[in-house]
Fold this sequence. Notes:
The complex is a heterodimer. By secondary structure, chain A is an alpha/beta fold. In chain A, 45% of the residues lie in helices and 13% in strands. In chain A, strand 1 (10-11), helix 1 and strand 2 form a beta-alpha-beta unit. Classes of the chains: A alpha/beta, B alpha/beta.
Amino acid sequence: xxxxxxxxxxxxxxINSLPEIPVEGINYEQIYIEKEPLCPEYVPPxxxxxxxxxxxxxIDPCRLCMPFGxxxxxxxxxxxxxxxxxxxxxxxxxxxxxxxxxxEPVSIATASFHEDTAxxxxxxxxxxxxxxxxxxxxxxxxxxxxxxxxxxxxxxMQGCLDEAKRQLEEEFGPEILDRVKFVITNxxxxxxxxxxxxxxxxxxxLQAFARQRSPSDKVNIIPGxxxxxxxxEVKHILRLMGIExxxxxxxxxxxxxxxxxxxxxxxxxxGGTKLAEIADMANSLATFALSPDEGSAGATYLxxxxxxxxxxxxxxxxxxxTDRLVRKLAEVTGKPIPEELKDERGILLDAMADTFHYTxxxxxxxxxxxxxxxxxxxxxxxxxMEPVAILSGTxxxxxxxxxxxxxxxxxxxxxxxxxxDMFEWEDFIKREKIDLILGNSKAVNISKEAxxxxxxxxxxxxxxxxxxxxxxxxxxxxEYLLDLIVNTILDSKFPDDRVHQ
Amino acid sequence: xxxxxxxxxxxxxxxxxxxxxxxxxxxxxxEFTQPxxxxxxxxxxxxxxxxxxxxGARWMLAPLKDAIHLVHGPVGCAYYGSVVRANAYQxxxxxxxxxxxxxxxxxxxxxxxxxxxxxxxxxxxxxxYITCSTALIGDDVDGVGRKMEERxxxxxxxxNCPGFxxxxxxxGHRVAYECLLNRLIGRxxxxxxxxxxxxxxxxxxxxxxxxxxxxxxxxxxVHCVFTGDASYERxxxxxxxxxxxxxxxxxxxxxxxxxxxxYGIPYLKVSFFSLSESIDSLRKxxxxxGLEKEAERVIDEEYKAIQPELAxxxxxxxxxxxxxxxxxxxxxxxxxxxxxxxxxxxxxxxxFGDAANYKDAWQMVKPGNCIVDDPSERDLEYxxxxxxxxxxxxxxxxxxxxxxxxIGLCLCPPQTGSYVGFEGFSNFTRxxxxxxxxxxxxxxxxxxA
Lengths: 501, 449
């Protein structure tokens, strides 16, 4: 047995070729088995290209295209059909996204650009398209939304629309132009994201329709891209305070509709902001743009043009900001803050008091659109959590400013990805110790891979039902979000039998 | 009674002046003896279900896992491209901005290619998609790709699919297959086995598995599935097979015909979308390879497995009425499926079917029933309301609309599982049963009365 060396190592082949195994056997230390790796070793990418600022490629973007925001806005108006001045896909992708997220039918017409349009321009498509749309759907408003292709071709939209109007008048008589109104929103996707698209639509709708008459004691609300449930919560707060409000782009009546037969044909949802309401927005006491990046352009326009004070942001998702909104509402309208609302606040605070041991000092990562991310970050701060990595898919100055203030107030040092993509955010949270992710459905895979539980918030959420019906804003919304956060922590961080002690 | 839209048009105001070119909806009968014209561009102002060439190309190429998918265009296209097929695919984008549109995006593309390669060094090839914007500003994407090939050490393939190309997503399907055919197939060689086949036109991973297992039970060896299960190694040697099995008659036909011309590979039209078709197809394949006995054994085995379930559901579905509106091929396939279920199809239609698809469907539907091509949302509303089918087979976009009118929708392709083969037929039966007998419809109709 000279081949067995004391403390020497034998490979499997060596052992197999032994004529006989020695009486004392072969101990484990003498055996050497070479393992073959199942997959190639993970090589992290070069440090220099992880930061999105240092590279030209964007990986897993956390933002949609600009027309989408304008379409969202148009969908929130009663009997308004958006007309996408672009190829068929530019209408179908958003329709698909709306249907997936809200589970409601959404009508978006297309100008149906083809090769010939790329050469000759889109005027013919617009003129013909608007006529067809009016004939078939009899809408009150047609919201014309441009996309990358029509902007690059350089169609003069106002000129095209004038020509279309002229032909309509010639064919149907002048009264057709009283029945159907038009609004144009220029949204080239290369100049911004869906956040900017909504913002531009807010301005263009008000520019087109707001008309000054005698002052009213209503307030304007431009909610931003929040869910139908959120808008209902805003309405609830207004009702409690006895304030009459006009909500611009009220998707609670169009993207969350009851199922009742018989339906009208063509199918139009009952709700949505009416044309008369938009016109009346020029006479209100004040404009509240709840999301600073989504809709502030509209509020500023009303302020400049009609001297209506604009109160911009922040999104009332947390206690501090909801307090601010309620106080401002009371201040503007002169109405007292009702007991019922104070009770609702108290219930939220009670829930926060009962759960701080679960939430305190948890490390959180947040991703999504700038306004909701800033507000959600403040809410988790109020719960005693520590935001670590905060991603806004769309670059925003307000967002950065707000986070800086928050960081000072609550004394933490978050890493902010302003306008970054999911790739760098993912890389960062995989290196850090994170307890919880707040984000949209795009973060699901990351949450699974990193083994960090996810609380869904923001847009888009397409892999769960009912999220669009629940409110996250206001005191009651905060309650719901708090429960969601705490229950997720309980599910992932506590043994099942030790939760109730 | 002329085309069934006539009544719809009558109700609409301004009928006399409404000259929307709408020849695409008709009722099979004495007056109409030909299938509707198809592959016409949609009229502007239509709320169509059709999409763009980019969508078509993404739909086809998204399942290719070992490639880098780089979209050369504004960021929105990348976002939408990553959620196609209701899945989350990783997408790279050059995210063009205003200055790139003005000064050209080629420099950014070069940088993006290098970085994407550095991030995914294990990728075997790169697919660069052209969008409306980059086609309009005239970037030489193909030139940049070819220049970079050597430096990156892998094929850089340009998918020329700007959104305005062609009349629908069908243009993109063709572009996608052209890319595979011209740039990848034939790069490698392998020993061709006697029973090696390719499957063309199966894009869903579940469906791929079911069809694959049926064929392997017969003793066949599935080499590559376009594109549900296609790695770089398999695609590049896809010309080394005995037979191509053409499943999607619309998207795959061009490809199989080209393979026949270029490499002399014959093809068989098969379908696994209904019980009778599955049995027919297996027999056809068995005959081709001389595996008749094996085919009969598989048919027998599989049919026995689903028989108890069918016995439970079929009697309750018999005589119900169905409607179909899907991509292209299923328009005809599903009519057969419903025939197997003992149901009647009141209308069937497609978004981008071609003449051959409509001919198939025309032969299948009974006189008095309708065929539509690229109906707008409004046409669908009328069809659903007037013909009131018990179940509507469609996609996510039609789901909520159909439910708003109190008609259950059976989602196709399904979110889980699949509708192909024997197991799929049983799944489909269950899905249709669910849509027809959901208790919620009971309440809705109750309110009406």
